[in-house]
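Duplicate of earlier report; DUF1963 domain-containing protein input re-posted below.
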Amino acid sequence: MNEKVLALGEKCLRLVTSNKSTSSFLGGKPLVGGQFEWPRKNDKPLGFIGQLDLKEINSEKEIDWLPQVGRLLFFIAEFIPFGIIYYWYLKPVYGI
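Output:
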């Protein structure tokens, strides 16, 4: 591959399925404590998409800008035709 193209690349995460027990998943309910405030838009609760446990996905600190602890929770407010996300909300949760 062209070296100029490769030089533009950035480290990224690739999500894959696993048979191991994990705290990173899509769907279901987020693993949060009692003080968690569910995100809302226009006074309506957002739909939960999934969560990533940073201790599991960045334990080796391979992506320097991504914290090594906490969870990233993904929410969605609305859908438009053809399943395209209209609005999404990312909520970092620390100390879990």
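The two ends are 42 Å apart (CA to CA).

Merging into the original ticket.
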